[in-house]
């Protein structure tokens, strides 16, 4: 779990981390989040002379943001956790916002990160899986049922590798960091090899790595062109572990997308700017949004955001 006290301008005033304790069960994770948030609020009151005014929470899995319920998270064992209500009660009745981890990170990237100033953006983190956040005029679109942006389950190779979602040939089975890791481990004969190792081998000119990398980039470009055809973003922000390869990824990816567009307008394709602080920052922004237009200046007291947030395979983050 990650936690932070966030100022109104997106500045992180204090950060902390703690293990989720998920080996002790889903109830223990919830209890840990509540305790962590309460401790963070107390720290803020002591450090800044005033308790936090609102909280934001970002969680993985299926989220009903309107009702404040963490509907389902496989890696945490959650089902229908009324997290907004629980946190509000624990934090003395302050307002609490609940969001999906990727959309929360996308909110931060869009407002204060790589997409700052863009009226339309698409944020795509490439990690264990692939997800997306659709940014429109400073907010992130959740969709009618909370599933907007699930680009990782766009089918790019019909009849291809089975996906846990029930389809075959989904984008994340070919272009996520875990997919590249698996492909490179098989191609190199090293079971411990991962996507970062593949990127290094690409840079050294290894033919096997180049083939693995090319397949992943081509699949990713196919999925992204589908997305930009539907959404017409001004900026396309790529984050997650695979983006850490830098221009080893971005140079061939930009070329691959450029070759595929016809009538579409090519968006600017840029790396994410906020790294693993995006979830904390996004949760803080959600919290300040609850306070409306009368948000205090950056020198005033911070707002807390408690957030178990990450991809489905990473521990939750708590941010305040």
Question: What does this 3D model show about the protein?
Answer:
- The structure is a single chain.
- This protein is of the alpha/beta class.
- 38% of the residues lie in helices and 19% in strands.
- The chain has nine helices and 13 strands.
- The strands form four sheets. It has a five-stranded mixed β-sheet with strand order 10-9-8-11-12, covered by helices on one side. A three-stranded antiparallel β-sheet has the order 2-1-13, sandwiched between helices. The chain has a three-stranded antiparallel β-sheet with strand order 4-5-6, covered by helices on one side.
- A hairpin with a 4-residue loop joins strand 5 and strand 6.
- Helix 1 packs across helix 2 and helix 6 crosses helix 7.
- The C terminus is likely disordered.
Strand content: 15-25%
* Order of adjacent strands in the largest pleated sheet: 10-9-8-11-12
Low-confidence stretches: 293-320
Indicate the structural class: alpha/beta
What general form does the structure show? globular
Main sheet summary: 5 strands, mixed
Overall average residue pLDDT: 87
Computed over alpha carbons, the radius of gyration is 20 Å
What is the strand tally? 13
- The span between the termini is 11 Å
Helix content: 25-40%
Order of helices and strands: EEHEEEEHEHEEEHHHHEHEHE
How many distinct helices? Answer: 9
What attributes characterize this protein structure?
alpha/beta, 13 strands, 38% helix, three-stranded antiparallel sheet, 9 helices, 320 residues, five-stranded mixed sheet
Task: Give the SSE map.
Blueprint: E1 2-6, E2 12-17, H1 26-48, E3 55-59, E4 62-64, E5 69-73, E6 78-81, H2 83-90, E7 96-100, H3 101-112, E8 120-125, E9 133-136, E10 139-141, H4 172-175, H5 177-188, H6 195-203, H7 207-231, E11 235-239, H8 247-260, E12 268-271, H9 278-290, E13 303-307
Parallel strand pairs: 3-7, 8-11, 11-12
Antiparallel strand pairs: 1-2, 1-13, 4-5, 5-6, 8-9, 9-10
Helix pairs in contact: 1-2, 3-9, 5-6, 5-7, 6-7, 7-8
